[in-house]
Amino acid sequence: MKIVYKLVSVLTVWLLIATSMLAQNENEQLEISHGPYLIEPGFDCITINWTTNKACQSWVEFCGDTNLGTFPKWGGYPEKVYPSNQGLLEANTTLHSVRLIGLEPGTIYRYRVMSKEILQYNPYEVIYGDTAAGEIFEFETLSNAVSEFSFAAISDIHERSKELDKLLSMTSPDSIAMMFYVGDMLNWIGDEERIFNGMVDVSVDRFATTKPMILARGNHETRGPEARKLFSYFPHSSGQYYFAFTQGEVRFIILDPGEDKTDDHPVYAGLVDFDNYRTEQEKWLEKEVKSEAFLKAKYKLVMCHIPPFSKSTAHGATDITKKWGGIFNSAKIDLIISGHHHRYSLIDSDANKNNMPVVILGQDMLLNADVKANAINIQVNDIEGNEVDAITVKSKP
Ligand SMILES: [Fe+2]
Questions:
Q1: 272 vs 20: which has the higher pLDDT
Q2: Which among 321, 326, 333 is positioned nearest to 297, based on CA atoms?
Q3: Ligand 1: distance of its center to the CA of 217 in Å?
Q4: Which is nearest to 233 in space by CA: 278, 280, 191, 273?
Q5: How remote is the CA of residue 1 from the centroid of ligand 1, in Å?
Q6: DSSP code of residue 322
Q7: Quick one: average pLDDT of 323-333?
């Protein structure tokens, strides 16, 4: 009888908590809870992600400078893009992702995110609630006509968002075309608040509403019960964490080295398949370095969390040297930017090993790169603003 009484008490408490949470959520005003943040930029495209505190249908309104009209706030009538998949407009979700395509290269667009609450979604009756409108921000599409631009890179923050914020305060969104996060920005992937608290929110505050962030996944971002959902927060049209794109005369290649230990290491509990994944990227890389976009680029840069050339004897490091190192050398990659070791080092090019310098970013460092017609000037600073290193990278003939 005592057990039944206890069970009823526990159930009652749970019911009260659930009811009060539901009531609390119902009383909350609809709001854009995180973002918007820009990802996957291109000559004619960009992706905008954000979340709302309630399930919504969402869209993006945007407008170029040339669409002159009578809507004074925008300078023209905004176009609307509703995300669509398999014949259905995306709806009834709190995470929203809209890819704008068909844009003009090197062009400034204004945009705002819009979300309409779905109060009830029954098979034959959908009831809508309030609509939340985001602020109007601007972004600029990439272009191969740009002769000079700058970018920045940070790695291994491991969810210490205060340190990330301080590093980001050392650069201005106006001065960079994009920000690279070279892996291990998070410790592991759990609920989405870890992603936002750990790295995205401060990025939004500092730059990500106007400049894209490019995540080169690190080994820590493959860990945790929700690691398979991280891609929804950093989607890429390739469907992969490895991809390439061009800005100006630079071809950027982003690779994903996976974990550092062997796939059968007990810590992964039989749930990883990185040997095959690295081989898959080897095959993709062979094609990429033969592509017109790669061959045409003056500078070829690789972003890869684990340094592909180092003294490390860990399995992940040696596997990528074996699978990708020869391709990097024969394709005349000009520079590799990595992290993972938490201590800064520069591996000079070595005719017998790596034909290009490898910058290994330390923890709490900011890399600023100025791409010029004759060289890329790179400066690495620590979190106090002290210069750690400065190097000049020339394009290989
Ligand atoms: Fe790492």
A1: 272
A2: 333
A3: 9
A4: 191
A5: 54
A6: I
A7: 97
Kindly report the CATH class assigned to 149-393.
alpha beta
Say how many Å lie between the CA of residue 129 and the centre of ligand 1: 44
Beta bridge partners, 117, equal 56
CA–centroid distance, 253 to ligand 1, in Å, is 18
- Going by C-alpha positions, the residue among 333, 320, 326, 235 that lies closest to residue 280 is 320
Coil, helix or strand at residue 134: coil
**Six-digit token string for 109:** 């667009």
320 alpha carbon – ligand 1 mean position (Å)? 14
Rounded distance from Cα 218 to ligand 1 centre (Å): 5
CA atoms within 13 A on the CB side of 209: 18
Q: How far is the CA of 201 from the centre of ligand 1 (A)?
A: 22
- The predicted pLDDT at position 16 comes to 46
CATH of 32-140, one of 2.60.40.10, 2.60.120.260, 3.30.470.10, 3.30.1360.40: 2.60.40.10
- For ligand 1, the distance from its centroid to the CA atom of residue 231, given in whole angstroms, is 18
Q: Which residues of 107-137 are buried (b: 16+ CB within 10 A; e: fewer)?
A: eebbbbbbbbbbeeeeeeeeeeeeebebebb
- Only one residue has tokens 């990439």, namely 142
Which segments of the chain belong to CATH 2.60.40.10? 32-140
How far is ligand 1, taken at its centre, from the CA of residue 259, in Å? Answer: 8
pLDDT at 15 over 50: no
